[in-house]
Amino acid sequence: xxxxxxxxRVCAWDRSGFGLSDPPPHPQTVDQTAADLxxxxxxxxxxxxxxxxxxxLGGCESLLLADRDFAAVVGMVLVDTSYNDxxxxxEHRVPAIIAAGKQKHLVH
Length: 108
What we know:
- The structure is a single chain.
- By secondary structure, the chain is mostly helical.
- It has one domain (1-83).
- 40% of the residues lie in helices and 6% in strands.
- It has 4 helices and 2 strands; from the N terminus they run H-E-H-E-H-H.
- The chain has helices at 30-43, 57-68, 86-93, 95-103, and strands at residues 53-55, 77-79.
- A two-stranded parallel ribbon has the order 1-2.
- Helix 1 (30-43) packs across helix 2 and helix 3 crosses helix 4 (95-103).
- The radius of gyration is 17 Å and the shape is globular.
- The termini are far apart.
């Protein structure tokens, strides 16, 4: 039996307007940022298999990446991720928290 050396790469990505990334050239939706991530991976020549790790909104982007290229995503790490209709559901359960976020312009 022969063993071949396996390697892995860790990449960090900042969505447009965050970290060291340029401001966004278009409106930022989860669909758009997931598409931007796929474009960044392709442009950098980084091919799967992928194990995306996403925190908060990054979890939604990771899930969309998997939906768009299921065969390339072989695992996923989701840490305290956001979810569909999060603020609508929270407003029903904890309206005071959502109201405070609206006052601070954190929730639309």
